[in-house]
Design goal:
The complex is a heterodimer of chains A (477) and B (315). Chain A has 477 residues and is of the alpha+beta class. Chain A has 14 helices and 23 strands. In chain A, helix 3 packs across helix 12. Chain B is 76% helix and 0% strand. Classes of the chains: A alpha+beta (477), B mainly alpha (315). At the A-B interface, helix 2, helix 8, strand 7 and strand 9 of A face helix 1, helix 5 and helix 6 of B.
Chain lengths: 477, 315
């Protein structure tokens, strides 16, 4: 259970100085390309992104403050067999998670088998409203973003499953479009698998999960509105799929069905791809103060009058406490060995784990089970002795509330910065789509921490994105 | 289509059109102010733009005096004034942002670029000397937007609502412009053939891009009655009231099938007046009265469109 944290694996140079095969042609190209040229291309990209309006809103700043997510012109390149491994692992994981949600909201076999404790039913993301409700195809997470990090040649770990309203896929698509525009010559040197059909796959899946018997279902994308940080993506996906982009105020419930208000009168809606959290989706079911939702929507949903993607109540399966059971879920539901590993996690509720963690606090990351966004967290290697000791006291007061993980050395990828091309830490979020089939397009959102040494890739913290290239075959030099 | 989508498209078009018209009025007033006018005070020159924008009370409260600097700031830059050029372009962009799905990507990029360029232009502030160039820029961007729309947008319901917005707004603006100027000039009476009047009338024509058209159509010196005819009854003059209703009526005939009978009625009635009306009769009735009546009817049409289609009730 130890991971070497002293030196990060580099996507281009592995752990040594020899360039990895997939980066061969790119390195040649890079050698004949000036820094000024790359910087010029970066500025061109920024201009284009701003013109198209690929921006995100930052909460709490000036009204309407719109920022660009930094775009890095150096791609992350994955070999065909690497992708094979990752995609098979991500698909397996999502199949297991959907089986788990279906089980949890029905017979709860996994609890009776003693694999997941019954205490999961007290998780605040568990929605009792969903107990016994059948959803089309037994699919809960139609769109899942699986966050994967790499620490070595063959070492990939799942950091997190995002099963609620995962975002970022528009960057996968727009970054590719941008790269093809800026560097067409590179696409002649490489055979890069296309990703542009993502909206079509998604639309086919959404249509496939309409209630049985619905002919030619009407699918809409529901957004919290133009001020949401991911609004660009909502608009982009709706446009690419050719479906209406609706807000709560555009929908209403009548006679156990959902309708949208149109210039020709009410029109029935069959499937809602919603990019709004459970809490805000229906003021009658969840937060009564929500102005964004549709009163009565959840009741129609439970009676089978409309399909929601993702389903209500998926949050119980992607929280940190549940995460630790996912490999067991794979074995339990699929009878398979997990292809992708979890980051090793110690549960402080278990005495042996607790002893180990308390002995190695200065090397580990300790997180609150329910925490998010970096709060209530100890990063051992970067904390002072005093901070570590203070945290020890907090753990001892309530050990059940904590998990611990090794401090991961995320892999680095060459990235254009002011001084030139230098390694920066990256992660990867492929999007798994479930409906007619469970699949992903060969690509992902690759997030990069633009600051040297930083492990924080979040866009809200200044992280950037890169185009991810999945090669059709081993690159020919 | 979604009522809200139609609403945003309609208002986006109205705001762009309004920004263009504000720029036209401002530009012409500024040019006029460069011609020396014996006996005309700065206030008489600079009040009409505010009258046209219909915000006299707000202006007098916030600024007091009608002078070049005040009126230019109020009409071009003041974000408290919902009809200022900056406000209009901001509102147009906000509307566009909410429905970018409903238009072509070229249209969205045009509106977005317009906004980005505007904020850049205004960063160093706007000098009096630059006002002409600024107004030209606003007009040309509005032309560009219309051209891009015409050239790229699917001819769906969204297109129809967008066009409704354009022409309802334009009809309103032309009527107000004519009314404000005509009223003032008639009140001043005096020698209608004096040089001052020539500039007044020619500038009014220029503000609606009709100076050359007037010469072509009438081949005559500029006569107030003919100016009025050009802007009210001529159907071949694209900013005239008649031309606006030539555009509005057929669109309404297409969309008012189940709902909106009242829209169709108002449009039909107004269109008939413009189509069959005679200038002599309008003058007999009084041009001011005629225009006031027209503005009220046009407003009612706007309200009916809003109620019937854009704020469609649930049941």
């Amino acid at each position: 259970m130890t991971i070497n944290i002293s030196k990060s694996y580099d996507e281009m140079r592995a752990s040594g100085d020899k360039v990895r095969k997939v980066y061969g042609p790119y390195t040649d190209w890079l050698a004949s390309t000036s820094h000024a040229h790359l910087a010029q291309k970066t500025r061109e990209a920024e201009l284009l992104f701003r013109r198209v309006g690929i921006t995100f809103n930052v909460y709490g700043e000036d009204a309407g403050a719109e920022r660009l997510i930094p775009f890095d012109v150096v791609p992350r390149i994955l070999a065909a067999q690497e992708w094979q491994h990752l995609s098979a692992g991500a698909i397996q994981r999502v199949r297991a998670l959907n089986a788990f949600l279906n089980d949890l909201y029905h017979g709860q076999e996994i609890i009776r088998a003693g694999i997941v404790p019954a205490s999961i039913l007290t998780n605040e993301m568990y929605r009792p409203e969903m107990q016994g409700v059948d959803v089309p195809g037994g699919i809960y997470a139609h769109i899942a973003g699986i966050d994967i990090v790499r620490t070595g040649e063959n070492q990939f770990y799942v950091l997190e499953d995002n099963l609620r309203t995962p975002s970022g896929v528009s960057y996968m698509l727009e970054d590719r479009k941008m790269m093809m525009r800026l560097f067409p010559e590179l696409f002649r040197r490489y055979s890069v698998a296309p990703v542009e059909h993502y909206p079509q796959v998604l639309l086919n899946n959404l249509r496939a999960v309409a209630q049985p018997g619905v002919q030619d279902p009407t699918v809409v994308l529901m957004t919290p509105g133009a001020y949401n940080s991911a609004y660009f993506e909502h608009a982009f996906l709706a446009q690419q799929m050719g479906i209406e982009l609706v807000e709560g105020q555009d929908l209403f419930v009548r006679d156990d069905a959902v309708y949208m208000r149109t210039t020709e009168g009410p029109k029935r809606v069959d499937v809602i791809y919603r990019r709004i959290d459970d809490d805000f989706i229906d003021p009658l079911a969840f937060r009564a103060d929500s102005m964004l939702g549709v009163p009565g929507l959840v009741s129609v949903y439970r009676n089978g009058g409309v399909t929601l993607a993702n389903a209500i109540g998926t949050g119980v399966a992607d929280d940190k406490a549940t995460y630790t059971y996912v490999p067991e879920m794979v074995k339990f539901y699929l009878g398979e060995e997990p292809i992708l590993s979890n980051v090793p996690t110690w549960k402080l509720s278990i005495p042996d784990d607790r002893r180990y963690v308390l002995d190695h606090l200065a090397e580990l990351v300790v997180k609150e089970v329910q925490g998010s966004g970096g709060y209530g967290m100890l990063v051992g290697p970067t904390s002072s002795k005093q901070q570590v000791e203070d945290f020890r006291q907090r753990i001892l007061a309530n050990p059940n509330n904590y998990i611990a993980q090794p401090t991961l050395a995320l892999s680095t990828c060459p990235t254009l910065v002011e001084q030139g091309v230098a390694p920066r830490h990256v992660d990867l979020r492929p999007f798994v789509l479930s409906g007619k089939t469970v699949s992903l397009v060969p690509g992902a959102l690759c997030r990069v921490a633009m600051t040297e040494g930083s492990l924080v890739v979040n866009s809200s913290q200044g992280g950037g994105t890169k185009d991810t290239w999945v090669l059709n075959e081993v690159a020919s030099c | 289509m979604l009522s809200r989508t139609a609403d945003h498209l309609y208002w986006m078009a109205r705001y762009i059109e309004r920004a263009e018209n504000m720029a036209r009025v401002l530009d012409v007033t500024y040019r006029m102010s460069l011609v020396s006018h014996a006996g005309e005070s700065e206030a008489t020159l600079w009040q009409p733009p505010v009258l046209i924008a219909d915000d006299v009370a707000a202006f007098e409260r916030d600024y007091g005096d009608y002078n070049a600097a005040n009126v230019m700031h109020y009409m071009a830059l003041d974000t408290r004034n919902p009809s200022s050029i900056v406000s209009c372009l901001g509102s147009a962009r906000e509307n566009a942002r909410s429905v970018r799905v409903a238009m072509s990507s070229e249209m969205w990029e045009t509106v977005n670029a317009l906004w980005l360029e505007l904020t850049q232009r205004l960063q160093p502030g706007l000098n009096e000397a630059d006002i002409g160039e600024f107004c030209d820029w606003v007009k040309s961007r509005s032309h560009l937007f219309r051209g891009v729309t015409y050239g790229t947008m699917l001819r769906d319901d969204g297109y129809k609502f967008l066009r409704l917005g354009t022409f309802i707004e334009r009809a309103d603006n032309t009527a107000r412009l004519l009314d404000a100027k005509y009223h003032l000039l008639m009140a001043a009476a005096g020698d209608l053939n004096g040089p001052v009047d020539y500039y007044e009338w020619s500038s009014l024509l220029r503000s609606v891009s009709s100076f050359e058209a007037y010469q072509k159509v009438f081949r005559d010196t500029i006569l107030p009655s003919k100016v009025a005819e050009l802007l009210v009854l001529r159907d071949d003059m694209p900013r005239s009231l008649h031309a606006c209703f030539d555009e509005l009526t057929p669109i309404l005939e297409q969309i008012c099938t189940q709902r909106g009978r009242e829209c169709l009625r108002i449009a039909g009635e107004t269109h008939a007046r413009l189509h069959f009306g005679r200038m002599d009769d309008i003058f007999k009735e009084g041009l001011h009265e005629f225009l006031q009546d027209f503005i009220a009817l046009n407003n009612r049409l706007g309200r009916e469109i809003q109620i019937s289609f854009l704020n469609a009730p649930a049941h």
